[in-house]
Amino acid sequence: MTGKASKDDVIQWIRQQHESLSPSQRKVTEFLLQGGIDVLHYPIAKIASEIGVNASTVVRTAQSLGYNGFPELQSELRRYFLRQARLSQRLQIGSKQLIDDLKDEPDQGRHILTTVLRDEMQNLLDLPQYVPLAVFDKAVDMLDDANHVFIIGLGASFPLALNFGVYLRYVRPNTTVLTPGIDPIPSQLTPLTSGDLVFSICFARYTRETLTTMEYGHRKGAQVITITDSDLSPAAKRADLSLIVPYRLRLYGNMIAPFALMDGLLGALSLRYPEATRQRLESLEELYETFNLLTTGDD
Predict the structure, then answer these.
(1) What's the predicted TM-score (pTM) here?
(2) What percent of the chain has pLDDT over 70?
(3) CATH number given to 1-84
(4) Which residues fall within 8 angstroms of residue 221, CB to CB, at 6 or more apart?
């Protein structure tokens, strides 16, 4: 988004710009505002078909509003509406989207699993649009340079944070996953100091404790990376570097794309220190054998 259109309230921004748009572009914005969260998952071609304009008009509408393209406008509208949506509403909306996607599939071979997998694959392929390679490389450098990495992801983001932290410890020591329910998060942050890094995973609706942790990291002189759903999200505003994964209207929200993104970060770091990573994993295997933790499957 250009500086001209950098507004927190995307709805108000669209309304302010309404009179400056062409008649066909106004049809696009009216369709999006009136349809609200129910139409935010529509692809460009479907929006164009619904209101009787060319697909290029949909793209130019977003650009006229100051966005780089329609996906960026769509992401901001999605973030706006999702902030107000309850979990039950998200389930209903996600189910409706899934039904619409199924209807678009050819009759032969139509199946919910095929549709979901195709959707996930497309989201993975789209990820480089939102996470430029230079931004990804910068995140790797920051993770590598930090004295200690503190990882936080609460609610549905906790499994993502835990998985990332477990494997990051094998690549680089001095990694802590801030874990709810064992000890208060503030007490786990006691060692945080300048030169450290806070790595947050924070999607709508944004958990206040995660945002407060990011703010505290800055006050202590630590750098902050976030995986979040928009450049304008509360998490992005508190971060030195944002890795954007647009929020998806599914019951399970954002899972596969962030996992893939973090897998890439782990892979990049492990390639920098292949021998040290190998030695740590071999030591781990010895500990597993010492404690007889694993089975061969024949027991």
Answers:
(1) 0.74
(2) 87
(3) 1.10.10.10
(4) 193, 194, 195
